[in-house]
Amino acid sequence: MYKKISIALLTLLVPISVFAAQDDKKSTEQPPVPTEKSQNVMKYTSSSFTKPEKEDTAPTKQKNSFQGFEKAAENKNLALYVNEETLAIKIENKKTKYVWNSGLDNPDQYRLNKTWEQMAQSAITVDYMDRRGKVKTESITTNDSRPRVKMNDKGFTASLYMNQSKLEFELNVELQENDLVVSIPENEIRENKYTKLISMRVYPFLGAVNKSDISGYMFIPDGSGALIRYEKNGTKADAPFTGSIYGDDEAFLKTKVKKEEDEKVTPVEQIKMPIFGTVHGVKQNGFLAVIEEGYTHGDILAYPSGVSTDFNWISSEFHFRKEYYQPTSKNMKGLNLYQKTKNPFGVKLRYMFLQKDDADYVGMAKAYQNHLSDTKQLEKDDDKTGVRLEFLGGEVKEGLLWDSVLPMTKVTDIPRMTSELKKDIDDLFVVYKGWSDGGLTGTLPQKFPFESELGSSDDVKDTIDSLKKDNIPLYFYSDYTKAYDGASGYSGSKDVAKKISAETISHSEDKKTLYYLSPEKSLAIAKEDAKEFKKQGISNVAIDTSGYTLFSDFSGKKSSERNQTIKTYQKLFGTLNKEIGNVALYEPNTYLWNQTDRYLDIPMNASNYVFETDTVPFLQIVLKGYMPYYAPFSNFQSDSEDQMLRMIEYGAYPSYLLTKEASHLLAKTASSDVYTSEYSIWKEKILYQYENIKNSLGEVEGEEIISRTVPQTGVVEVEYSNGKVIVVNYTNASYKSNGTEVKPKDFAVTEGGESDETTRQ
């Protein structure tokens, strides 16, 4: 799957600098030639891996002033204080006596201009448009907008009238066990006749750290997860991290006149979880913020020290009106506008405070896992060590007069290959793609009948039955978002989603144009497909694109705001689950986790922005023990050895894209990027990789990750709920700890400090 990246973000896609130890020779001498060992160490100190924590970190000290604050509420875990003039808050963790501050006690001590100081000290900062169309910023302290505060048993409610923008809000802040919940109800957001609300930040400086005054880091849900440590040297970035939750809304993106060459760079990872967090002293204090309302129009913002201010701060921003480009001529000349109508949503943030052993990114992941489980968004499923085999059936081959289908793997070829592997692999499943009439590309949304070049309907049923006898589920690949230009099964004028500018939502994919179907049309097609799948004896489907693509649709009567699109897609996958059986999704967003039985192509990296210091398996820690997840294809990885070790460390299972025929036959097709896929070539590699995965992850099937430590650069220890510890050694030197020796580029499974016999074979 290839998700596009906006040109504005390209400048951020620079790997973070890696510093080797300085040589103590005179500056006139030539620098030493890097040894294999030094290159190895440099690689694992990069932002693509996780750094060891400093052992000598002193307890975080505070000098708190409660002057101007009143105690609003208290329970056995937390105490809440509020400044009634600014609505700034302080939260005391009664277990550690640590105080979290939403503002600054002595703002004059820091380098902040007036605008930044007002935002830091205020509960709410808004961007709004005045009657002349000019965008302005206002905080509570900008024009002394004094709120009316009413205390209650759990916290307080504040009625706020912004003196400059004439906007009105109601802010609710209350304690719930170990959480702080901040909310602004949708029906309590009122605009003035002449001013329009554009965006809002709520308690943006909660947990902010000046430079490296406190040890720790900010956590952002970028790909698998990333950290931004508070460092003395500061960042070399000149822009913050800004990530749209669940990706950019295509309905507001400018249509590109031509495909940019720069789009061939590695795409950024998408935010799949509406969360962020911060740590003040690892294993001391931290919090995880969960955005429970407003996430469909929300961004995650992370400002490292050196970007705009000396502070490290992380927050969310909510867009009530989005800017878009409105073409006014055929040559795409136009102007930038904001939405006329405010997006309908309220704001709700839940801050989960963590302490001691839970105050790190692992503790954040476990807190989020528990939250999702408690709210029925994540449910326990079978998690067995296995392999995903994805077979490419047919692909479109262009001809002079008409196109034909190139058969790469006939459906009857699959049982022979799987039966060979089944002798040594206990658990595997198959995804069959390109099975529709016309092959893989250019046929959607039409799916039936089955492509005759790949076999008959009877062949399909025989293959399903054959694999079922071997206990191998066969998933049929499909998509409910894409519609190809010229394909059948939809109307280009009635069923295609439209942007707010009235243009269709479309993309160029290998010289072909594809459109996004309106969510309602997607649901209607899924209902009809479910009947046909049942008729064909198909009980498993794997759905691409739809699980990670969220957009608004402005096509008249079928218009769908992002919140409504989520509800429609939930109905869609609910229908498939009910009528067919099992649904596996590619890279699904959080709101579909309870609709998928397997997570395909789980992100194994972050985006490596210049300010990111570490990559962590946050997403994997949340999901481990709850559902099986599978890494991207192993046969497309440049460093297969490290990639296999990372799968073992992250708890991910291997995947392969395979064909019976030689992959060079695809050279002039839309699947030309499949450059090595022939089953006969990869068979032994599949067996080798599975054996190592089984010897490691097979020891922790169905278990949860409870701890992850990096004792030294390039070595990771992951502890599971059954007491097993998987030690992964990426380096070129042996690693010894507690009687366990892990060879270079190897792993070991230990328990109680003693080494098991489960290492690489």
What would you say this structure looks like, in words?
Helices cover 16% and strands 30% of the residues. It contains ten helices and 43 strands. The strands form nine sheets. Strands 7-8-9-10-22-17-16-13-14-34 form a ten-stranded antiparallel beta sheet, with helices on one face. Strands 23-26-27-31-32-33-35-36 form an eight-stranded parallel beta barrel, surrounded by four helices. Strands 5, 6, 11, 12, 15, 18 and 19 form a seven-stranded antiparallel beta sheet that branches. Helix 6 (519-535) packs parallel to helix 7 (562-579). The radius of gyration is 27 Å and the shape is globular. The two termini are 33 Å apart.
Quick structural summary:
By secondary structure, the chain is α+β, with helices and mostly antiparallel strands. The strands form 9 sheets. Strands 7-8-9-10-22-17-16-13-14-34 form a 10-stranded antiparallel β-sheet, with helices on one face. Strands 23-26-27-31-32-33-35-36 form an 8-stranded parallel barrel, surrounded by 4 helices. Strands 5, 6, 11, 12, 15, 18 and 19 form a 7-stranded antiparallel β-sheet that branches.
